[in-house]
Amino acid sequence: MNARVVTISATFGAGGATVGPMVADALGLPFLDRAIPEIVAGEIGCTLEEALAHDGRAERGIGRILAGAARLPTVAMGAMEVYLPDRTIVPAEEFVEHTERIITRAADSGGVLLGRAAAVVLADRPDALHVRLDGPRERRVLLAASEMPGGGSGAPERDVERMLDDNDRARTAYVKHFYGADPADPRLYHLVIDTTRLPVPAAAALIVDAARAC
What is the tally of structural domains in the chain? Predict the structure, then answer.
């Protein structure tokens, strides 16, 4: 049975936004990433800005708030409560619930989903292939810098390192807070790929082959 849904969890600089569309195109499936907060906003009846403020992959999303709170000495993630600034009148949990519904609906019809703990949300689906893209931090920094305008010449390496650390920390905080899971745990995935060593087309082909073999 071919996998009709592929979830991709990717650290910053690991090429998730490039590999995902390639996989979707090869499998003839829709790719869902930036469309998810737009759908959430429409269903809740809020602005896109509000939805992005609670999105797991947004540059200024809730993961940043959670990651910042987790660094405070008196605040712990998991069972203890974490204070979240009242950015909207809609609780953060409602945004997460709507995101889960969209992920589930997408899985029912087939698709490639990037981030937002989709591997955890769809963990029990037999028709889903869960993939993790990662690599050593130093190589991800180099790749991220090379993909920036000007080939990285316009951004000092320390700025890229800061972006990488902030993104990784935020995405980890989102998954840990709402699902009690570590997105780096290899047990969540069927396939873990070091995309700092394997070229993007080869990584995409490997995922496509795995999806077709499931």
Answer: 1
User: What does the pLDDT read at residue 51?
Assistant: 85
Query: In angstroms, what CA-CA distances link 194 with 145, 146, 197?
Result: 17, 17, 6
Contact 29, 51 (CB under 8 A): no
Provide the residue range defining the domain that includes 153. 5-213
Q: What is the pTM of this model?
A: 0.84
What pLDDT, in 10s, does the model give residues 74-103? 334 444 344 444 444 568 888 999 999 999
Among candidate residues 143, 137, 136, 167, the one with its CA nearest the CA of residue 56: 167
Reduced to 3 states, what is the DSSP secondary structure of residue 143? helix
> Would you say 94 and 199 are in contact if contact means Cβ atoms under 8 Å apart?
no
Q: Is 1 exposed, middle or buried (0-12, 13-18, 19+ CB in 10 A)?
A: exposed
What CA–CA distances, in Å, run from 106 to 27, 121, 171, 204?
Answer: 15, 12, 21, 20
- The conformation of residue 110, written as its DSSP 8-state character, comes to -
CA separation for the pair 44, 22 (Å, rounded)? 31
Average pLDDT value for residue range 116-132: 97
Q: Which two tokens stand for residue 181?
A: 């899971």
